[in-house]
Amino acid sequence: MSTARAAATFEPVGRSVAAARTFVRDTLQGWGYPEATDDAVVLTSELVTNAIIHAGTAVDVLCVRMADAVRVEVADRHAERELPLHSPAQQPTPLDREGGRGLMLCAALASRWGVDYTAEHKCVWFQLNVAEPAAGTRAAGPELPVDELPLADERIRVAVVRIDRGGLVSEWNDDARDLFGYEPEKVIGKPLGDLAAWPHTPGTGTGLVEALQLSRWEGSYGIRCNDGRVTPVYASHMRMRSTSGDPSTICLMVRDRERAVLQSPLRASGGDTSGGEGRTGAFPGGDSFEAFIGTPSPDDLDGLLQRTVERARDMLAGDAAYLLLATDDETELEVRASTGLPSARQRFARVPVETGTGRYGSARLPAVHEDLMADPDAVPLLAATGMRSVVSVPLKVEGRLTGSLGVAAEMPGRYTNEEALRLQFAADRIALAVESARLGELERLRRGSLSFLVEASDLLAGTLDRDQTLALMAQMIVPTLASWCAVYTLPEQAEPELSYVLHEDEDRIDDLRALLSRIDPPDAVLVPGARLWRGPGDAAHTLAMRSSFLSLSIVGNPTVAEDAETSLATAATVGGETVVLPLVARNRVIGMLVLGKPADEHFRQEILELAEDLSRRAALALDNARLYSERTTISQSLQRSLLPPGLPDVPGVEVEVIYRPAGEGNEVGGDFYDLFEIRDGTYGFAIGDVCGTGPEAAAVTGLARTALRLLAREGFGGPAVLERLNAAILDEGARGRFLTLLYGELWPQPDGSAVLKTVCAGHPPPLRLRPDGTVEQATESQPLLGVLDDLELHSEELVLDPGDVLLCVTDGVTERREGTRMLGDEGLVDVLTTCTGLTAGAVAARVLRTVERFAAEPASDDMAILTMRVPAQLNGNGAS
């Protein structure tokens, strides 16, 4: 094989890297070395980038074809400069460094490489070995029955036509003459377009002239024959460079019904095989656009989009490229992939579709902007990127806008309508694949969103505590939906207050809280959806600038330097997009939910919609927690008013009370107790149980306790007090409750004993513990209150001698259960017999401990325990 050379020079600008890649790819593909193309393009890209960055001069790229190898040389014009990269053997490049791998790649990929110096330039070269194509099968099809084989004439004619760089026919073989009826001298020197009947694809203006400029093209069109008829042909175009360097296109043509002779098996399944208007587009590089991009996996939309923009940039030798996808309502476009742009800043940024000031004006139709300086609002996302010219085309599926693909350059006037046509053809080829992948991603996201919202609803419904609800809200958002979040609550007729702050980096929470505390909170407005809030970003930027200035002014101060570093980190933390979602419950704004991204990041539209759904659920949960907290506070305040303000000291008698209401948040239930002074030397005590629990029972408790005190202090005895209380309960009607009550009057005696007169109205009788351990029932039970109109009660007198203990309980003690077991009166007696010699407080505590340990489940009934003990008399030796 003869030696061939191809050379090109590139200016020291960023777009030259893409142009150099295209040049090397086209050259090697044209020479028939596809197996070496990928490695050569990678190495060329690295070396040209290094030469432009470090040398800053024009770059010469030379490709040399040899018998068994391809050599590529990259030379700059600064021979006196050192190599920008060290040899891998001398100093390995750190893995986390972005540059510095050029010569390492040469050593890894090339069969030979080196560096040559002259007085005028420095050249880094590499060589890739290529083998002669081995004999064997490249493509094959299955064995078919004879009647299924393609039809062909007895003689297959393959027209070979060469078209020079000006589009004129330069060669015309005999088969072309036989097929179309023209002698060579009649067509040589004329444009092939004069003979072709080109079937334009709807929506594009691509014609035969454009197709002949492509490196490879395959498809169908018609040729007007000498007799006036149009013969449909299937053609394969290959653009080649001769040894003299002049490019030309070789066209092989057969009758369309004989297309199987030329049609590539690899493209037959993907192209239109139905006839005249089908064709497979190709672009520089030798393969179709979609073949280069590849078929994405079902969950690799981002990979497909990124390969698309990179290929589009290389195809048009641009400096940058971007791809936007339309939102569901097609009113906005969202940046999903870019190359050559600050992608972190642009990713998920949204721009309106319709034309107008500040809007994206080239979404629905192909557009070429020769100079963005003259029309800065044409493509808002390219503002402040240094791009001057741009070509953009829509992605459409069944006439519906699904996205936009654009390529930009730093130089004005780089693109014309021809590039727009090429890019539009590429967009048409991949629009369906992109939309299919996008819908798959959207479906997966929606399924995940439903699961997320179900789980969030369960968690929020599981608590009525305000602080816990705030913490759950933040923990569900960070880091799933945002990098940080803050919750502002709005008290009644008060300014919003910062209630909770969370960041994915726990070390940044305090700094973030401090920053948000220094700025005004967002406005509490009843506007649905997310709205941008620039407050945190602006404050962080100002803080970072001030800290940087101080650190420069006060050099050597470690505290100032540390504060500056913290401020810069905080600015990076909140420097991205920040949005505010109102927390609306029962048509009232009760707070604001703030979501933030780190520096230069945006939210996806789907994420904002999910956050909006979550904010509605969180707002209702937060308002429920508020209402529950208010109700509990009011209830507990009322219940506390039903408890005795304090127990008086009874001379010569130890008194202890233990009270346990049932139910969460209750301080008073249906059981109650009281101990009060009736007059000098006389005390009243009571322990009772209202039927049921909760606020309704507590209301009867309040009535009973108040009536007992008033009646006793009016001089009524025990039976009269309870009879009048019975009448008061019956007067309550349906609101009244049954009441069991033990009421008594107590007189401490000078001899150390205590006299009691008791009335036990349906209540468990009290138990008396003697110093010798004997336990006996102290009174008899009489009818309960709130049932009979004509109630006659009598009192019983009891004397507690020194050392005696009187135990009074409600039925919540004796009816303590576990399964079929119950503590009962016998169990209570057994406990009390073990309390000999204990104080009143110790007796009450032992009874309570026995009740609690009797069953694992919490008690379901209120409990009250009242113990009274007359201390034993001490003899002269100090013993009782």
UniProtKB/TrEMBL annotation:
Domain PAS: from-to ranges: 154-190
NCBIfam families for the chain: sensory_box (TIGR00229)
Name the record gives this protein: SpoIIE family protein phosphatase
Organismal lineage: Bacteria, Bacillati, Actinomycetota, Actinomycetes, Kitasatosporales
Keyword Metal-binding: no
Keywords, comma-separated and alphabetical: Hydrolase
UniProt keyword Hydrolase, yes or no: yes
PANTHER family: STAGE II SPORULATION PROTEIN E, STAGE II SPORULATION PROTEIN E-RELATED
Classification via InterPro entries: Bact_Sigma-Reg, GAF, GAF-like_dom_sf, HATPase_C_sf, HATPase_dom, PAS, PAS-like_dom_sf, PAS_fold
Species of the source: Streptomyces synnematoformans
